[in-house]
Amino acid sequence: MATTKKQLLAVLGATGNQGYSVASTVLSDPELSARYDVRAIARATSSPKMQDLASRGASLAAADMDEPSTLAAAFQDADTLFFLTTTQYQGDTRAIEARQARAVCTAALAAGVSYIIFSSMSHPAVLSGGKYTNVEHFDDKAEIEAYIRTLPVKSAFFAPASFMQNFLGPFMRPVPSREGDGTFLLANCAYGHSRMPFIDIEETGKWVGAVLAHPDKYEGKMFAAASEILSMDEAAEIVSRVTGKTVKHQHVPDEIFKTFLPEGLRQQLYEMWAFQRDFGYYGPDMDQEVAWAKENARGELTGLEAFLRKHDYVLE
User: In the chain, fewer beta carbons within 10 Å around the N or the C end?
Assistant: First the structure.
């Protein structure tokens, strides 16, 4: 009996949270693994994550977006490509990410890739009507999405919400109150009622997997990928419930909040927060876009409370 030839999915950046999730999801999903072979691509193939993917059936390839000559072999015979560009916190992120994306797309088209799935983002400069123009690490990905849409290739886009992982590090971890009363503060320039979408970024594959299962259905679509939208007060309440500590959100005036941020990224990170507060992470249609993406995700999604409990979250 004749068997249908599998398509080849190339995952560029397979050791990162997003790429690893996509590759892992396909390898572990009976329907997707029957449809796709996986080629995991990273700058080196010796890392534990790459070796894990290989042990589960992925082929491995080494390539670097900053060395375009390495991409051709990595993309050879690939039908579908998932990739992302990484924010360059040392500066020039727009120029660097744009250059990398064009190199990747040029190589992908030359290799005959017929479908690109790109990790995109909302567009603060546009959604804010030009008020916030320094959120480059969002804007550049939206601009890359616009560029991909002009190419002679099918495409779909995954735009992840604020990472729940930020609660595990200093970016959103509540800090002890200066009152010394054992309470904690989730302090930022948002207001208590300001709403933010959240995602466990290790679940990227649940959205990208939906595209891979039904590529024609989702061609041209953008997934505003979040498991839930929470106000700052609601997020603080969840942290309180998980940790047993009293946690409250505290609004910090903009100019004071800026002093909390690293000097080299101060304006960029401040405007990111202010944009979300003033215009919504995905803009005016955030609720509808998140609801649609959530309904179309492949598999059950993890909310913030379950995420924190999974990580045995504590405040000390």
Answer: N
